[in-house]
Amino acid sequence: MKSRSGMYAVSWTLSYKPSLSNLKPKIIASLFCFFQFIANASYAEMYGNYDAKKILIVTETENGQKKGVDLRYLDSIINDLGKHASVYPPRFDNAADLRRAKADARSLSGVLDILVDTPTASTDLLKRSSLINSIGFMLDIPGSADKADRDFRNLLNQMPDDTFANYRYGVFLADSNQGSKALPYLEKSAKAGVKQAYYSLGMVYLSQQNMELAVKNLEIYKGLTPNNEHVEGLLDAIKSGNVKFKKH
Questions:
Q1: pTM (predicted TM-score)
Q2: Which of 48, 100, 151, 157 has the fewest Cβ atoms surrounding its Cβ within 10 A?
Q3: pLDDT in tens, 38-53
Q4: For the chain, which residues make up each domain, given as ranges?
């Protein structure tokens, strides 16, 4: 699995935004998402306290114990992790929250690993496991990228037309410096009605320095999300030539 090494950092000049010249994101899309956080002048919420072991449910039946997964509790943890680490760099209120989040992501991945590492794994669990491991990748947890790729491939083998799987896998591939591989999945999800896919497509093309297709997709996204000043600013920067690339 490829890492973020060799990616392009990008910066552009906008009056209301700080310089990006010193930032080294996993991907250009993550960079811009981080930029949006800055523009909103918001701070990270506190990360919750969870017990990953509680996602496992043991029920006594006539035939013995039956083991299951508490999807509601699992989803609450995933949602909280996603608020802080769905883009790079992660945003946490303090170092203790970050350490706890990493521990939770590792634990959840380990628990689900036993259940999803099979060609016939539950698609409900695969969707969640793929998200957890994608988040783990953003948290720099070793091995997370390979696990996420495994989960997405398994999910798409079972559900090739699933909109969620195509979009999330496309984003993951872009995040892991595989923009060319990401394109067909993002295009498929865009045609299926995922607005954000056009933004992701635009950012992938921008990272490839294909300005024409970058502008085309970002314009579509802009039309689908009126009054989005961040996209307007980016489009203005591209069209005015204020986008600079630096390979790391």
A1: 0.81
A2: 157
A3: 333 344 689 999 999 8
A4: 1-42+161-248, 44-159
CATH number, domain 1-42+161-248: 1.25.40.10
Secondary structure string (H, E, C) spanning the chain? CCCCCCCEEEEECCCCCCCCCCCCCCCHHHHHHHHHHHHCCCCCCCCCCCCHHHHEEEEEECCEEEEEECHHHHHHHHHHHHHHHCCCCCCCCCHHHHHHHHHHHHHHHHHHHHHHCCCCCCHHHHHHHHHHHHHHHHCCCCCHHHHHHHHHHHHHHHCCCCHHHHHHHHHHHHHCCCHHHHHHHHHHHHHCCCHHHHHHHHHHHHHCCCHHHHHHHHHHHHHHCCCCHHHHHHHHHHHCCCEEEEEC
Average pLDDT over the chain, rounded to an integer = 83
Q: Are residues 47 and 97 in contact, defined by beta-carbon separation less than 8 angstroms?
A: yes
17-36 per-position pLDDT tens digit:
233 333 333 434 344 443 34
Q: Which residues of 148-177 are buried (b: 16+ CB within 10 A; e: fewer)?
A: bbbbbebbbeeeeebbbbbbbbbbbbbbbb
What are the residues facing 8 on neighbouring strands? 247
Alpha-carbon torsion, ordered 137, 215, 196, 142, to 10 deg: 0
**pLDDT at res. 230:** 87
